[in-house]
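Suppose you are handed a protein chain with no further information: no name, no annotation, nothing but its sequence. What can you learn? This example shows the usual starting point.
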Amino acid sequence: MKLSNQTAIVTGASRGIGKAIALALAGEGCNIAGVARSEASANAIAGEVTALGVRYTGYGVDIASASAVNACVDEVQRQFGGIHILVNNAGITRDTLLLRMSDEDWDAVLQTNLKGAFNWTRAVARIMMKARQGRIINISSVIGLHGNAGQANYAAAKAGLIGLTKSVAKELASRNINCNAICPGFIQTDMTGALADELKQRLQEQIPLKRLGEPGDVAALALFLSSAEAGYLTGQVLTVDGGLFI
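A reasonable first move is to predict its three-dimensional structure. Written in structure tokens, the prediction is:
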């Protein structure tokens, strides 16, 4: 197995893209520390992961809190003996037009989607630097590349995540730590499931592959970026969108 005896922290692991990534990594022998807003949510996938023959522990963490993230990283390091992969996947939306957007809507999305990723990256970097190896994968979005009406907060956070990715890649490359970003397009998750059927149909018509993506489409790329085969890739922004923005 490609990732035997390695440990990955996956945020937003309880469902959707995060769950698919956790299962893909576990399928290659990687132990998983799954993070969600509550420990119960984080442990929702425990049975599926451990059925693949690896260790799993779920953690409920407020990822916008640096102290909570630092404490969790210390606990993962203690329990698993190392942290080799970090997947910053957790994200929320508070969609509304700019003139209607409250300070709370702006702050909540930036705190979770951008500051949360910063908190985890800073916390694991010291461990990875000491080990002189590591993989950091940030789940951004095509919205961070192209913007979208009604999502100024989400677009700003996801664009910021791309800038964070490139800066971290430059800072940590000398310690054999790779940092890359994945920009999913419209993927079939709870987030897109809330869209009206008519809107989803219009979206599919704009996508050259004529379908919404599956969480596994993103997970397959995350697995590759976690592997030794991706050792010469860093600072890259890779789009998984069915050709939507060709």
